[in-house]
Specification:
CATH architecture of the largest domain: Alpha-Beta Complex
Largest sheet: 8 strands, mixed
Structural class: alpha/beta
Shape: globular
Strand order of the largest sheet: 9-8-7-10-11-12-13-14
Bound molecules: nicotinamide-adenine-dinucleotide
Number of domains: 3
Distance between the termini: 66 Å
């Protein structure tokens, strides 16, 4: 209530008001800026505007639901509020969210000029203005609810529907709908989403705590599904990558996939080309002695990996780290023949690499702390969330996932239909049913993980 009324007082001031936006302007920060008459954004990569409340299961209740649709029109405003997505400086101007883009060194001058200009305050015009009024408003409401129902058919999320309702029926004023406020703030979903947010922040802090310099060169061995995509990710984040594989064709395929990733993520053809130039094919591993980190992602075979390490380890430069992307082989087994077993670490990515935020950092009991630091610095550089786990079967994620998948397969054995199992788990809140998930991972891989875990749990039963 205090946030809502204080921003309303700011909006009603007779004097010109201006928000000069530099860096992140999110949630309540953007609502404060929206209550000003003018907004200028500083032309910098880290200038980002968003109303991300929906991601925490709540809504922008300090005027965002009222002022954003009035400023940029309901379709774009609802999209921003329902996805919580980031808007960059240039895009903010295109949307009408900001009045102008200014270079940092001229920011104060531009602000003073704008405040004194007497320019009319920007508002949504034409169709966008009509869409804010009844009856068109209800048309937008119905269309938006249809999209929400498609994405969330089992009504797990209250906040998106509340945002649409408060905008459509109460002109964006949440105080007119106290029941909704109560429902939202006391909902299990909001509680869990806020918890997930804090957990993610905790993982991010592991990566931030490292004192290591950023890595300049990563060498990846194995250009398959995982190695190829990890190489592309590294190159897209500005790291020089050399990519080795015994099969030249796999490197070429990885380069093809990398170009698509760069085009999707970087867009600007110049940046795409620069990223492509950073990804260097190295069939024979000539670059190993220069790399800060050598990451192995060859086929899941203990002997092949051990043989490879015997060749790689003597070539590593001082301070360089050897890492493996193995998903199921214990590091204890892999490091047996190493001269410095305490310097092997697991950096376990998930598939698809570009989309999965989590990376397991697998540590043995005597890991060299410097090696762990390098792995954390690497995760920070490529914007992944590092989860430290010990070298136990299935690490953490597969140890949780495998029993869940196994139970789903048992249900099939007991005569239940696959579609029914999947539908039940989706109704419970899973984004994908367990049977479809097993099919996506691959039945062979799922079986291998199961065997690994059961062998570790009960060696006597393994044969
Ligand atoms: P893949 O079969 O797609 O690729 C393996 C690549 O390694 C092939 O291109 C092969 O030519 C190359 N290779 C094999 N031996 C080599 C050697 N001695 N020297 C150079 N290149 C060699 O396999 P993948 O799915 O990318 O898996 C790679 C690793 O990542 C495995 O350890 C796997 O357990 C792990 N992993 C896989 C997934 C997944 O979903 N596929 C997920 C997480 C981790």
């Amino acid at each position: 209530m205090r946030g809502w009324s204080i921003f309303n007082r700011l909006a009603k001031l007779k004097v010109p008001t201006l928000a000069l936006i530099h860096g992140h302007c999110l949630g309540g920060g953007l609502e404060l800026a929206l209550a000003c008459k003018y907004r200028l954004v500083i032309d910098q990569a880290n200038t980002i505007l968003a109303l991300p409340e929906v991601r925490l299961g709540i809504f922008p209740g300090w005027g965002g639901m009222k002022r954003l649709p009035e400023l940029i029109g309901p379709p774009k405003a609802l999209d921003m509020m329902l996805t919580g997505r980031n808007i960059r400086a240039k895009q903010a101007v295109r949307l009408g969210l900001a009045d102008a883009l200014v270079p940092e060194r001229l920011a104060k001058q531009a602000a003073a000029h704008h405040v004194l200009s007497g320019k009319a305050v920007h508002k949504a015009k034409g169709l966008n203005a009509w869409l804010n009024k009844v009856p068109l408003k209800h048309l937008v409401e119905r269309q938006t609810l249809k999209t929400i129902n498609k994405k969330d058919p089992y009504h797990h999320y209250l906040a998106p529907r509340a945002i649409v309702d408060i905008w459509a029926r109460h002109d964006g004023n949440p105080l007119k709908s106290p029941d909704t406020i109560h429902q939202i703030t006391s909902s299990e979903t909001a509680r869990h989403l806020i918890r997930v947010f804090h957990l993610q922040e905790r993982l991010k802090s592991f990566a931030k705590r490292t004192t290591k310099d950023p890595l300049t060169h990563v060498h990846i061995i194995g250009a398959g599904v995982m190695g190829g995509d990890i190489a592309a990710l590294c190159a897209s984040k500005g790291i020089k990558v050399t990519l080795q594989d015994q099969d030249r064709e796999r490197i070429a395929q990885a380069q093809g996939r990398a170009r698509k990733l760069f085009q999707r993520k970087l867009r600007d053809p110049r940046l795409v080309q620069q990223a492509f130039d950073r990804l260097i094919p190295d069939e024979k591993g000539i670059a190993i002695p220069q790399a800060d980190l050598v990451l192995e992602a060859i086929s899941e075979n203990v002997h092949a990996k051990q043989q490879l390490y015997a060749l790689v380890e003597p070539q590593l430069k001082t301070g360089a780290v050897l890492a493996t992307n193995t998903s199921s082989i214990p590091l204890e087994a892999l490091r047996k023949a190493l001269m410095r077993p305490d310097r092997l670490i697991g950096i376990h990515f998930f598939n698809p690499v570009a989309q999965m935020p989590l990376v397991e950092i697998v540590e043995t009991h005597d890991i060299d702390p410097e090696v762990r630091d390098t792995a954390m610095a690497f995760c920070e550089q490529i914007s992944k969330l590092p989860l430290p786990v010990s070298d136990t079967p299935g690490f953490l994620v597969n140890a949780i996932l495998a029993p869940y998948m196994l139970e789903a397969m048992r249900c099939i054995d007991e005569g239940m239909k696959a579609e029914i199992i999947d539908a039940a788990m989706q109704r419970f809140g899973m984004p994908m049913g367990p049977i479809e998930l097993i099919d996506t991972v691959g039945l062979d891989i799922a079986r291998d993980v199961g065997v690994q875990l059961s062998e570790a749990a009960a060696p006597a039963l393994s044969d």
